[in-house]
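for the writeup, i need someone to sanity check this before i put it in the appendix. the sequnce is what the collaborator sent (i think, or maybe the updated version? ugh). structure was predicted straight from it, no edits. if anything looks off just tell me and ill rerun, i have time this weekend
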Amino acid sequence: MTHTLFGVALYGALKKTDMDVKTKWAFFGAAVGSSVIPDIDIQWARAGADYLMSHRGITHSLAMAPVWAGMFSLLARIVFRVKDWRLFLTAFAGVLLHIVSDWTNAWGTGLLEPFSPRRYAIGIIPNKGYVFWAMAAVIVPFLLLFRDEKRRTRLFRVFWGLGALYAGFQLAHSAYVYADLKNDGFERIAIRADRYPGGLSYYAKKALKPRRGGTSSEEQAGSCVSTGSIRWTSKL
């Protein structure tokens, strides 16, 4: 659902004063369609423990972004008879929004498929887009109030500005927590954003040096695991 919201907001932020109705529909279809198309793999993703290895695979890769964008640009020509190079850029932006937003949550995505099966994730944004929906809820009443196209476009751009500030704050806070755990000697660190801004959960692990002069069991190297939940105010 959040990807659909991003597609609508992407279309809303476009300058449309020079577009006729047919062209607007072409751009709307390209913006919304490209924002959700990577999730087409849900149709064949296997249920169970390996679901995430079936989902968010090659359809979510950076290599597929120009392919999806080209497809929607071609569809606009066929369905709406609209030829505009901006359609490709709009669809490309929509696909990138989907891929990047999936990359920023803890589930991750196959950014480099088919060249690498690895899943990439940074965990700075929660998997559910509660914050973005809250932003949209604030803006919707103003969209209903204003009928002028230019004002509505500005409102959607405000949405993206707020979203960028939120993502930047989450990135900065996550980087601070990551560096703090690194300074404490932890080597393997995984961070997951909680629902509210500034909330983070983490898993961190470090190896312990063997103790000398003890029993054989004491001489064996071990590991130390730390888990926790942090609010940004607790780190100030």
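The mean pLDDT is 86. The beta strands are 188-193, 200-208, 222-230.
thx in advance!!
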